[in-house]
Design a protein that fits this description.
The chain is of the alpha/beta class. The protein has ten helices and nine strands. It comes from Eucampia antarctica.
Length: about 325
């Protein structure tokens, strides 16, 4: 094909198929916070008397200013941190899968993805592990490449594959899209929407939040409040708080809107220029005739006393009556 001057047909990559298997049913309450307060040592409290619950049908997005304690709240849910006061009561059979901003810490970077999964699941067949990793976009040479040589986005896929094998009841995802491309983000959103368990998401990606979240919890002022409204209302409220006003947008797009905006200007400007040009030309011709007539009158007054120049005066008056011919000469 190359010799014939034809380019090779591009290879179509297999679509990613993230999947989190069904964890099974757990009766509520699955995870309950009762009068929970928390403060880091020698610091002001981040939370004070917080009460809420998370179940398998929860689809929660945690939002709030930086430093308000969103990641801290996820750590309290997972049991990594203990509350200063109050009780956190998880179901005795609850399993949680967590994706953190330091997700690389759960990987052994000295191994390849296949070696890593063989260590975790020694009873699984080699080919089954290859197929499973391929669903999360870890395929081909990537499977046998040392993970420290992979990009952060590729490492993220390995972590999501690990989460899928753990079969958690609740997913705790803290900024999961930081290193993912658009295709991986869409695959993640589809997997979360098909998941039968609960979700608690910390993210600044409004596109992902609008795809997967059913509730918005605002973390601020030492408390957690449920936002009354959908994601579109929340985005409009955020824009108004930031002083961003929406400008009216024309129904036309692209070149059509430019042409539409340009037409009135041309219609108004062009006739004005033509009228100005015509008025100038008319004024100049009138002024020229007046000036010529004045010259003739002055010459007539100067030559009137001389009786011998009557013939010359008559000839000058005839010339003064024909300005156009003199201008053309």
């Amino acid at each position: 094909m190359v010799r014939a001057g034809l380019a090779e047909k591009p290879k179509v990559e297999k679509p990613m198929n993230f999947k989190f298997p069904s964890p099974g049913h757990l009766p509520p309450p699955v995870l309950a916070f009762r009068d929970v307060s928390f403060a880091y040592p020698n610091c002001q409290p981040l939370y004070d008397n917080v009460n809420f619950g998370v179940d398998l049908d929860s689809r929660v997005a945690l939002v709030g200013p930086n430093g308000a304690g969103k990641t801290t709240l996820v750590k309290l849910m997972s049991g990594e941190l203990e509350p200063s006061m109050g009780d956190i009561r998880p179901h005795m059979h609850l399993k949680m899968g967590r994706f953190t901003q330091h997700f690389i810490d759960v990987l052994d970077l000295s191994k390849t993805p296949l070696e890593f999964f063989q260590t975790l699941y020694p009873g699984d067949a080699f080919e089954e592990l290859r197929k499973y990793l391929g669903r999360f976009g870890v395929s081909g040479k990537m499977q046998v490449q040392q993970m420290e040589q992979l990009s952060d986005g590729q490492k993220s896929r390995v972590v999501f594959a690990k989460l899928g094998r753990e079969c958690p009841h609740i997913l705790l995802l803290d900024e999961p899209t930081n290193h993912l491309d658009m295709e991986s983000i869409d695959a993640l959103a589809m997997a979360v929407n098909a998941f039968d368990g609960g979700l608690v998401l910390v993210s600044h990606d409004m596109r992902l939040i609008s795809q997967v979240a059913k509730e918005i919890w605002i973390c601020d002022h030492k408390c957690v409040k449920t936002y009354r409204g959908d994601i579109q209302n929340f985005k409009m409220d955020m824009r108004s708080q930031m002083g961003i006003t929406s400008k009216p947008v024309s129904s036309l797009r692209g070149d059509a809107s430019v042409m539409k905006a340009a037409k009135p200007t041309n219609k108004k400007d062009t006739p004005k220029k033509e009228k100005t040009t015509k008025s100038v030309s008319i004024t100049s011709s009138v002024n020229t005739k007046k000036s010529i007539n004045k010259v003739v009158e002055i010459s007539n007054l100067q030559n009137k006393p001389s009786s011998n120049a009557t013939a010359e005066n008559s000839s000058l008056s005839k010339l003064g009556s024909m300005p156009s011919s003199s201008t053309s000469d």
